[in-house]
Design goal:
The chain is α+β, with helices and mostly antiparallel strands and 197 residues long. It has two domains: 42 residues, no CATH class; 137 residues. Helix content is 50%, strand content 16%. It contains five helices and seven strands. A three-stranded antiparallel sheet has the order 5-7-6. Strands 1-2 form a two-stranded parallel ribbon. It has a two-stranded antiparallel ribbon with strand order 3-4. A hairpin with a 2-residue loop joins strand 3 and strand 4. Helix 2 packs antiparallel against helix 5. The chain starts with a helix and ends in a 9-residue tail after the last helix. 17% of the residues are buried.
């Protein structure tokens, strides 16, 4: 049994028994056991890094970042606008928007790490963090379906405790989060200021 396992794994490894020199592709790993001296020549990766060809405000970004950023912006543009514009403490909030926030968060909670640009990674991370916090305040713990239209939700305000929580906790925090979402929107869609002469 152990001979079969040894033979199977050694088929995929470079022949290090006959040579102390190994040429290694940049995207794979080599295993070296029982060697006194080994020379490893690392070859460049098959897929070279993308060039910095796209502008994001004043920042040059890679083609990969430009593609990912376009996907992120496409997923969040309308949601950001809606959440910035609609005050859920005074208006009914579309339940489909909540579903989209949750769906997009599920997709981007790991994919945001794929951005090469630290600045873009930071903006996307903070956008996701803002939405994640916002979802806490838009949860069914605080909100109920609107009787006239179950596609919308409103804040519970049926008791003294609900009213106090709404005034002291929910309103100040949702205002803060909506302002932060506005800031994220302005970061994601930067516009150069016109030069006034």
């Amino acid at each position: 049994m152990s001979n079969k396992l040894t033979n199977r794994t050694s088929e995929n490894l470079p022949n290090v028994l006959s040579s102390k020199n190994i040429t290694q592709n940049g995207k794979t790993n080599a295993v070296i056991q029982h060697a006194e001296t080994v020379n490893i020549n690392v070859q460049p990766s098959i897929n070279p890094p993308t060039g910095l060809n796209t502008m994001f405000g004043d920042l040059k970004i890679s083609d990969n970042d430009a593609k990912l950023l376009a996907e992120f912006k496409n997923d969040y543009k309308n949601i950001l606008k809606y959440c910035i514009r609609i005050d859920p403490t005074g208006e009914a909030f579309d339940i489909h928007c909540l579903e989209l926030i949750d769906l997009n968060y599920t997709r981007w909670q790991f994919d945001w790490r794929d951005f090469e640009s630290e600045k873009i990674r930071e903006i996307v991370y903070h956008t996701l963090k803002n939405f994640n916090e916002y979802l806490d305040y838009l949860s069914d713990q605080y909100m109920i379906p609107l009787l006239a239209n179950p596609n919308f939700v409103i804040y519970k305000n049926q008791s003294r405790e609900d009213g106090e929580r709404l005034r002291e906790v929910i309103i100040p925090n949702t205002i803060r989060i909506r302002k932060e979402l506005r800031d994220r929107y302005l970061e994601l869609w930067p516009v150069k200021e016109p030069i006034v002469r």
